[in-house]
Amino acid sequence: MNSLGLYIHIPWCVQKCPYCDFNSHALKSETPEQQYIETLLNDLKKDLTLLSTPSTISSIFIGGGTPSLFSAKSFERLLAGISQLIPLQEGLEITLEANPGTFESDKFLAYREIGINRLSIGIQSFNNRHLKTLGRIHSAEEALKAIEIAHQAGFDNLNLDLMFGLPEQTPDEMCSDIRTAIAQNPSHISFYQLTLEPNTYFHKFPPKLPEDEAIFSGQLECQKLLAEAGYKQYEVSAYAKNNIKCQHNVNYWQFGDYLGIGAGAHGKLSNPYKKNIIRSMKAKSPADYLKNNSAINTTISTADLPLEFMMNQLRLKSGFNLDHYLRATGLSPETLQPALSQCVDEGLLIETGQHYSCSEKGWNFLDTLLEKFML
């Protein structure tokens, strides 16, 4: 029985943030909740016809956008519909992304009651000046209140999203955000650097960012604070307490298979019979998706597979072994040569028998490492 992740995209936000390159669209009227839920289920039906082996869903991640704009009743209908179409593994992780500006106590109690058991809150910063610069609709006080509501609703598996390297942010301010996050006792913290992505307002009108040295020194100090508080880094931007990792994302990074439904959602499926791997993408425009939720499917070329695998797997501190590479890609480990040996010789990778992981040097220069696997 093949295990699959299921990603569900809710594309609407109250407003578009200037740094955001996700497929999100500012609300101009009420969201067509019921129509969108039924379209998601029809989308899933189509995707299930592509499966080559019996499968179960091992994790569900509802992302966006701002999924917490939708009611618990809508998600209850969605989860019930999914379970009628494909078996769900017992006790599977079901994550919902939420933004503090959309928190209501009753709504989040209802989310927990329908089976959503992991919450990921987009905090970004606890500094009101930085929140304003980032275009967030919430204040630091509202962020803290949202976390309190999440705890009260019974979400003991709770992630807080934080960014660093913000416009005019000092290393001390980075550390202040991390200290505040740690004090809220979440099980997981995502801590990632602001980048100016194409097709964003910040890319067109770049804000003044801190110097690289200041960002790096602040990052190191924050990582030290996280480690001292028991948050172990297991991925480039992910820190888990008591080993409570995000299982859905770990599946991505281990080059696992997953379905993606919703406007702009991506999926990846392996076909052992045809010996190929297909990536899919749904229509990005919510209006187009609601009219015709067809997918664009592309086959990952054999030449691109080594890089695709390494780009995902080396995000994990644990690294990978050659047997897993063979199972995940269908390719001989020899296809990773000579790049693999070069990375070991240059001290970017550590080799232990058939297992490879990033050295501290490789971790700090991951882009340089991955370039060696480009053909």
Described by strand count, sense and barrel closure, the largest sheet is: 9 strands, mixed
Q: Share of helix among residues?
A: 25-40%
Range of strand content: 25-35%
Using the coordinates above, name the CATH class of the largest domain.
Alpha Beta
Q: Using the alpha-carbon principal axes, give the shape.
A: globular
Order of the strands making up the biggest sheet: 9-10-8-7-6-5-4-1-11
How many whole angstroms does the radius of gyration measure? 21 Å
End-to-end separation: 34 Å
Count the beta strands: 17
**CATH architecture group name of the largest domain:** Alpha-Beta Barrel
3D architecture notes:
The two termini are 34 Å apart. The chain has 375 residues and is of the alpha/beta class. The protein is built from 15 helices and 17 strands. The longest helix has 17 residues. Helix content is 37%, strand content 26%. It has two domains: 250 residues, Alpha-Beta Barrel (TIM Barrel); 75 residues, Orthogonal Bundle (Arc Repressor Mutant, subunit A), CATH 1.10.10.10. Helix 1 runs parallel beside helix 2, helix 2 packs parallel to helix 3 and helix 6 packs parallel to helix 8. The strands form four sheets. Strands 9-10-8-7-6-5-4-1-11 form a nine-stranded mixed beta sheet, with helices on both faces.
